TrEMBL record:
It comes from Magnetofaba australis IT-1. This is Lipoprotein. Keywords: Signal. Residues 1-25 form the signal peptide.
Length: 138
């Protein structure tokens, strides 16, 4: 039997989007106005204060995972690169899959983390699987 712990977390992109400005907005931003803003590829430096970040389908999505806690002598960070499976645009706390319909960042991505610890007598490493799925896909 494998010990499992399931919980939901907010992705880095969604967390940054949620923590940035426009916290008082209750409806999505005007799509026509956002169409006029410059689009900056993720990882590039914006040249203006107002812009939309684009995570392009097929582009690299660098990830860093940290394991920490009282059971460990020190934190350990593992890094890797995944590929984006679809286009994603982010503007402040809002995100879109098509630049037309904007939803709050935390509502647009379902994130599940599954932790599997070895059982008594096993020597395999622990396994952590993070699943990122689009909510309200278009």
């Amino acid at each position: 039997m494998i010990m499992k712990s399931r919980f939901y977390v907010v992705s880095r992109a969604a967390a940054l989007a949620l923590l940035s400005g426009c916290a008082g907005m209750t409806q999505g931003p005007d799509a026509a106005r956002l169409q006029s803003l410059p689009v900056v590829a993720y990882g590039q430096t914006p040249q203006t204060e107002e812009y939309v970040t684009h995570f392009a389908k097929g582009s690299d999505a660098p990830m860093a995972f940290t394991v920490q806690g009282t059971l460990l002598q020190q934190p350990q960070t593992l890094t890797g690169v995944a590929k984006m499976g679809r286009d994603l645009w982010v503007y402040r706390q809002w995100m879109s899959y098509d630049r037309q319909r904007w939803i709050k960042g935390g509502e647009g991505i379902a994130i599940k983390v599954d932790v599997q610890l070895p059982q008594w007598g096993e020597t395999r490493p622990s396994r952590v699987v993070m699943t990122l799925d689009a909510r309200n896909p278009q």
